Amino acid sequence: MQQKDIKRLTMLLLFAPFALWILLLILLPHIGMVILSLREKVAPRVYEFGFGNYIDFAMEPIYWNTLLRTGSMALLVTALALLIGFPIAYYIAKVAGFRTRGALFLLCLIPLWVSDLIRAFGWILLLRETGVISTFLQWSGAIDGPIEFLYNDATVVVGLVYTVILFMIVPLVSTLDGMDNSMIEAGYNLGGNGFTVLRRIIVPYAMPGIVSGCIVVFMLTAGSYLTPILLGGKNSSWFTEQIYDQFITRFNWESGAAFGFLLLAFTSLVIWLGLKLSGQTLANTVAKS
Amino acid sequence: MTPNPTFDLECNNIAKSFGKVRAVNDVSFTIPSGSFFSILGPSGCGKTTLMRMIAGFEEPTGGDIKIKGKSVLGTPPNKRNVKMVFQHLALFPMMNVYENIAYGLRCSGHDKDEIKRKVHDVLERIALPDVADREIHQLSGGQKQRIAIARCMVLDPDVLLLDEPLGALDLKLREAMKIELKLLQHQFNTTFIYITHDQSEALVMSDHVAVMNKGDFEQIGTPQELYHRPNTAFVAGFVGDSNRWTGRVKSGDATGGMAETDQGLPIKFTANGQSQISEGETVDIFVRPEFIRTLRGADRQSPVEPHETSIDGVVDSLLFNGANSRVLVRGSTGQLIEADVTLTGSGDLTPGEDVRLAWSSEQATCFARHEAS
Ligand SMILES: Nc1ncnc2c1ncn2[C@@H]1O[C@H](COP(=O)(O)OP(=O)(O)OP(=O)(O)O)[C@@H](O)[C@H]1O
Ligand SMILES: [Mg+2]
Question: Are residues B78 and A180, on separate chains, in Cβ contact within 8 Å?
Fold first, then answer.
């Protein structure tokens, strides 16, 4: 009996930090957000329960257009990160020799040692009107006047892909690593060409890694703030910027909370749809990669 | 050499080097249609490399491979009609049994109904008609084995390569699968090339066996030939169990003679057909345990035949294994000799008993040492 109690106590103690973390840092703030977002300001310091903040969002096309724009850009970034990251991951896991593999992995990690902010400023140094690329192109005679590469969507997408691609590569490498080479050879041996082997064997095998990489990358991108603001400027129209605006500039916490909650709901919906379409479950993607 | 269509596979002097390592060394052989051919050799002797060259995953550094009389050098693996059962089977875990078998048919562009018919047909033939909808992890080891073979056989290959496919199975199942593989080969009537380091697998199943050592073929022959008339010391030592001595020839001619082992034991031998053995040469002598008679009690004193070698010794221990029981005898010169005995359960040999071992010179195979082997 006593043994059992001790065991239970140990379990409780081990579980406590995790439970507290979930409760205090994730559940409580979100509950607070939901409650906050459901308050309507009817007069100074007078609040009423209601869906006014959400209705405001629905009535104002700029708001939901920004959300949709953020969502589609994040999807684009996810797709690009997958397209670029998959060959890299495949090379690291299957083609590179044992020693090269470690070096390549390290190379992928290096950008992560530098903070987001510094990286974004790095891009700015390269891309601004008086930046390295513009100057070089003028010097080489390819262009006549200086060109501003910053503050457009393409730059934002490139910057975001650069920031998040590591989170695509890591799960992909770990799933591809677990794949027996003879499986690929069997695919060829039974008559498949390179494309068939990729489509019917490698990609299905790597699916858990692909899905979990995509989830992480999509979440990170949709919720990112620094990169779109710094590289896209004021007119990047990123949804997190709207949230920031509501909280900080307008001091409208109620609607900021509603926006934050909407972003969470929207990204969750997209991920749910993605899981449904790819026929994966959250459990097996997270467990496998 | 003119292409001969009765050979499913011909290899002429194929060689493969990985940098400085010579994995396969000018190997030549031909395999007639519909036979079961085994390549037997110790670990690391180049069996897998040879097979991968036939399948097209490695490019030979020299020589030619012909399938059905046509050279396949430069043909990519997916264009060769050679299918392979991998060591760990390499079934696709994300597909069910039906999809696994249908994969190859899809690649070659068969239509849906035909695929369905063929898959069910082949499942019928491997006696697993009901597993089409199962996932791979729901199969037993032996069933996986058969699915892996079916997945290849459904494509009607010219040659089926099997790389130690029984390696991952437990002993009981291995025994059962040996017989099953042989039956499957008969049923499909396709040429099987079977790689193994387990001599009993090779001997039981094959029509022909090639013994491979350090990238070379030592001997190709039927299992009986290899067992009873080995050409080299390596084959004699590797195929079947043997007592092995090294010694020096005391006297001898082309037919046989007398040698003395390093321990000082005189042994009469018959010269192995292929090699000339002259006096003073260092030789390896092999005697199989089943050809050694164990004499006990009064029999010990009876004179042995003139062509027989006999040695007195003391029973060191009994290795009981039912019908394959052995006795270990410590001879007068100190070394241990293994002999087959029949143990009946009463009045058997006991450790410490004095015995005499005797064997005919015909059973003492002798090979000259040319270089250190
Ligand atoms: N890709 C490679 N690069 C370098 N050396 C290799 C390579 N593949 C095989 N070898 C070497 O070639 C030799 C033969 O290897 P192989 O795999 O053919 O042996 P094997 O007979 O199949 O052995 P096992 O029974 O253990 O599977 C070995 O010495 C091995 O180290
Ligand atoms: Mg091998």
Answer: no
